[in-house]
């Protein structure tokens, strides 16, 4: 514990959806001094108005350790550098090294489910490598293995609702979608906690569902029939590219279905409940609460 001294918490990637929400939760909860970091501090004006200190955080900055000066507990939100293999892992390792040099006491990191070798997800090695770097750093660490966001369905489900067909190569595989807000609440709780030990949490929704089961829920919530069409990975990729998905991105998106099909996304963890004391939001409840947003995108 840190005695009576006010602890200083820092969130990287605070210009993004997850990081911003974590900062908002921390500030609302009066969780000590909160620093919001981003490569583009101009995105953080609203957080500054709420009481956050603002710092420019660039994982490619040679003086990154200086950026982390005075920070007690640090949340490293994984970067979005996935186009160039290895670049994101290099950034994450630089952040871990800088945390060590800056004397940070504990690091919380947003990982993914089952990133160990053998994952079909192209960027899984970034997460596994970062977890290994943390384990070897001597820092206290908390790894949050966040499942796939329910919000990601906003990118695909409106088209499914419009056409009535859901093309997938996920087969009978299951995935426990989790809301971004549940991930943010779990991250905020982990960051504000006082422990110095190491822990890993599976942060998922309350149930793992097949695509057919998800389609049935969506059909019921939105009142539209959906037919699930199983295809091969190759056919799914071809269809994505034909519909305008960039060629470099299509294999990454297909790998999510592959990952689900081979059973690497079907775990249901207790991370949200353990860290926040509250049950995670079900997919049905999420879709119902955001019905207007989905239908607007159709």
From TrEMBL:
Alphabetized InterPro entries for the sequence: NAD(P)-bd_dom, NAD(P)-bd_dom_sf, NmrA-type_oxidoreductase
N-terminal signal peptide: none
Pfam families membership: NAD_binding_10
Domain NAD(P)-binding: residue ranges: 13-192
PANTHER family, alphabetized: NMRA-LIKE DOMAIN-CONTAINING PROTEIN, QUINONE OXIDOREDUCTASE 2
Name the UniProt record assigns to this protein: Nucleoside-diphosphate sugar epimerase
Organism: Skermanella stibiiresistens SB22
Lineage of producing organism: Bacteria, Pseudomonadati, Pseudomonadota, Alphaproteobacteria, Rhodospirillales
